[in-house]
Specification:
By secondary structure, the protein is of the alpha+beta class. The chain contains 6 helices and 3 strands. The protein has a 3-stranded antiparallel β-sheet. Helix 1 packs antiparallel against helix 2.
Length: 142
């Protein structure tokens, strides 16, 4: 699960709020509203899991030229019809705004920027008696 909305999604949300409306921006950003690591831990504990670990995984995300990619991406989301109904100048402004916002991450014909996600691992129950992992230790997730 993502740790936050992320640089790209924040930039798109801001552009939508500026050039379309706040409701569209909120709808677009809804998929990146996620629980905190403590909330994830609590949910896993409440579900009966044990040996729970939550860690942050960092990765670099590369996207192609954002003025075009952003509009193609938005077309495939629940706000796609709103964007399609917008004037061509508005769509152009959205793409240009996102591209400008992430310009500091320019790489080749696109951008490469850091993202973080939470990775939760847990055990459903204790391993059966006599089951051993390689090396003679009980299986451990990390």
């Amino acid at each position: 699960m993502w740790t936050n909305a992320g640089l790209y999604n924040c930039a798109v949300g801001e552009a939508l709020a500026q050039f379309v409306n706040n409701e569209t921006a909120i709808r677009f950003c809804a998929s990146r509203q996620v629980p905190t690591s403590d909330e994830m831990l609590g949910l896993a504990m409440a579900a009966g899991f044990s040996a729970i670990e939550v860690r942050v995984c960092r990765l670099n995300t590369h996207l192609p030229r954002l003025d075009k990619f952003t509009l193609d991406h938005l077309a495939a989301t629940p706000v796609g019809p709103v964007i399609a109904a917008a004037a061509p100048e508005v769509r152009e402004q959205i793409g240009a705004c996102v591209m400008n916002e992430l310009q500091r991450f320019a790489a080749g014909n696109g951008v490469t920027f850091p993202e973080e996600s939470h990775v939760l691992t847990a055990r459903v129950g204790q391993p059966p008696q006599g089951c051993r992992a390689r090396g003679g230790e009980h299986a451990q997730h990390s």
